[in-house]
Amino acid sequence: MPQSAKDIWKRILDEATRQLPDTTVRAWLEPTEAVSYEDDRLVVAAPDEFAAKWNETNHGTLLSRLAEGVLGKPITVTFRVQEDRQKRPQMDFFVTPPVPAPGSSKPPANPSNQPLNERYTFDTFVIGKSNQLAAAAAHAAVEAPGKTYNPLFIYGATGLGKTHLMQAIAHGMIKRRPETRVLYVSAEQFINEVIEGIQSRTMPEIRRRYRAGCDLLLVDDVHFLERKESTQEEFFHTFNTLYEAGIQIVLTSDRPPKDLPGLEPRLVSRFEWGMVADIGQPDLEHRIAILRKKQEQDHLEMTIPDDVLRFIAEHVRSNVRELEGCIIKLLLYASLKHREISIELAREALADKIRPGDDLPAAPRTLPTIDKIQDVVARRWGVTAEQLRSKARIKTLVVPRQIAMYLARDILQMQLIEIGQAFGGRDHSTVIHSVDKVQRQMARDRGFRDRIESARTELVAQ
Fold first, then answer.
1. Do 117 and 217 touch, CB atoms closer than 8 A?
2. Quick one: 183 and 303 in the same domain?
3. How confident is the model at residue 407 (pLDDT cuts 50, 70, 90)?
4. 274 and 290 inside one domain
């Protein structure tokens, strides 16, 4: 009797489990599905193009050999993208699809067809000290849209969950009222639409869509509106129209309204009318909780041990996005090396995330002041602290000043505007440029990185 593609693939997988690590099978082969077998060719669907290419490149030869042993004749195993999984989030490409619990429902669909991420719900948002105010305000906005907290302005550094919380509001409102019309845009998209509307003379149509076509307006990264006079004018009138109509408005930014110098005062004033809530860096317990939520959500309990999650949380302290990126990198590394995931493997895979000395037991210490950072950098780079704090733009001061800004941001987690004020009243964009430039230079110049790490060691050892 002819065997079906699924039966053949099951027998091949049974053989593969004897030759490949469990992590590899679970992460890469179990999420696949055989779709056809004809002309000595077995076609297997993978969740995404990356997964299909990875399996083809790394496992194709072995699987074809195992298939020959199963069927007693040469056959070729090939991979392609499974159409109904093309829209799954990135993290899902590396794990077995979750089995829905009885009676569970999918996140609500967005009737306005805006790009909402179905994973960005309140259920998947982990609350800790750094975001509990913003989370509480978000829940309140769902309970009473357009009333208590309107607008809701959420600010914080990149990768801390601002967009997640914003979209959770949309999902929450749609769940309560399925007919809710959600308009979700980035500030950059709004700017581009205004420019195109002016050029094509379609502004009345754009105004109608924004001012009369939604029950909830979400605008990401409003700091990009800085110094965009025409766009700010349009946004001002759009904001007023929706606010007067009792429409809930939710905005995100990397800084609070008062720290957006390129924004018109009347917009800053309106952004502060409702609730301004920040999301800060998660502490150790919060980072562990985030990783455990990810472990549970993506069914990785048997793949990544709890001690490895704690190891990651202790050494990766920047933001939620980087924590999730570490999980993806660890899964890839374990698959590539054909090894079970352990702390030792995590130390290898995440070597670029772990600073020298991070593996040693942490001793209680007091953080240095911004003045101390300036003093240490000035002495080590042959300038004075007063010069670093001055408005002077002398070439010899550029690098040490950028390094001092980077260390202030990295060690003290200071706000951009605070760092700028400590270095001659410079604006946040200068600080961002300085931090980015130092990070890039450290990535490609080991000597430069070692010199900065030496300065850091002196500062944290005080």
1. no
2. no
3. very high
4. no
